[in-house]
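Many introductory courses stop at the sequence. We go one step further.
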Amino acid sequence: MKKVVAIGIFDGVHAGHQQIIATAKHQGDVTVMTFDPHPTSVFAPERTPTQLINIKDRIELLKKAGASAVDVVNFNKDFSQLTPDQFIEDILIGRFSAEHVVIGENFNFGYKAQGTPKYLTEVGPKYGFGVSIVKLQEDRGSTISSSRIRNLIIDGEIERANELLTRNFYLKGPVIHGEKRGREIGYPTANIGLTPLATIPADGVYAGWLSVGENRWAAAISIGTNPTFPGVRGRQVEAYALDQVGLDLYDQEGKIEFGYRLRDTLKFDGLAPLLEQMKKDCDQARELTSK
């Protein structure tokens, strides 16, 4: 089979990325070349975007989308200074022996992004590989992109983000010790420790799922600073596994999937109205997650 290389960052492995891999599969056996860390972290560290998924999960989702292999290129200063021709000769030919290359129409490569899809198409025959350029997919009049999905998540538009991802957006991290306030009021939550690059949805209450190990429970999820209670605290991401009692999840990896946004974070006048609202939230989350 033909050696096909699909190139991109592929953060999130969204619908547009899946289209690139599907196109590549039509040509032969697909190796995905992806980059870590994000190239922006080398060019302009202050503008480094948050991640939709970690690199381990990116590899897994790329394989699920149809890649036979995934090669993660360490994007560092030296790599960023390869000329377009060096990139073609050293990487596409020298490292991958590419016979066909598939890229999105917005993919540029080489020093200062001087290599364009047009250039790759022109020189491909000289090096013995064909090129497919995949038109960016649109949804509701706008391009599907990792940046657009990040913005939807940050704005709390989780259902729209999920449509473009073709799956539920999720956060992963160790279950850490919080203030244990949920436990005291009858709603013990799993607090998730996150990396600085995590893309965190807007403050509010969501319906979704909490997974730890082999278990996956419907959950009511809260993001915010718990403004009803006194004191100053950072933003917390915590999930209450609906109708579960006595779970001990500390120090295990937790995965919180976001299905639906229920409401904004509110400051209540005391515990009674908070508990009343929490019961409504849980009832709504139970109903939505059982669909």
